[in-house]
Amino acid sequence: MVRAGVVAVQGDVSEHAAAIRRAGEAHGEDVEVIEIRQSGLVPDCDVLLLPGGESTAISRLLAREGIGAEIRAHVAAGKPVLATCAGLIVASRDANDERVDTLDLLDVTVDRNAFGRQVDSFEAPLDVAGFDEPFPAVFIRAPVIDEIGEEVEVLAEWDGRPVAVRDGPVVGTAFHPELTDDSRIHDLAFFEDLAVEA
Question: Model confidence over 133-146: pLDDT tens digits?
Fold first, then answer.
C-alpha cells in the first residue's frame, strides 16, 4: 500500500488522485490518497503531490498551516514529491516574486505565467527522457524554468526551455500531467524505482 498525500489547498486534486492510482495499479500497488489541508498528515505519507492553482495563495497557506515545514522534512528523508505548474513555482528555489514563499525543494528559478494567460493555454507533444512516445502536455498559465542548478536533471524542454526537471526525489513540471489519461509522469515520479527493482 502506497499512501499518497495530495496537498489539497487548490488545483486538480481529484485528477492527481486518479492519476497516481492508475500509475500504482500498473505496478500492482494499491494507493490510498489523503487530501492534505492541515499539518500532521504529511509525515504519514509515502509520496506527495503539489498541484497547481495560485502560487501566492498556496505558499501562504502552506506556511500558515505548518505544512511547508513538513514537506521539507519529507524531501529531506528522501521521499518523492511531484510538483506541477504552480506547485513547481512553490517548490522552486526562487519564484522571482516576493509574494511567493518558496519551499526551496528544486534548485531552479522560475518565471510565473511566462507562457501567457489562460487564453494562451495549449497542449503539446513533449519528448520526455525515458519515454518511448511523446507525452501530451497541457500548459495552462504555465511557468518557465529560467535557471537550473548543477545537480538538476532536465527531463523535457519546450521551445528550448526546461519544462520538466528532477532534483533528487522531487520532480517538477511546468505543465499539468494530471489533465490527461496518461499517467507516465506520475509513474516517473513515484514508481520508476519499483520498475527498476523488478
Answer: 999 999 988 888 99
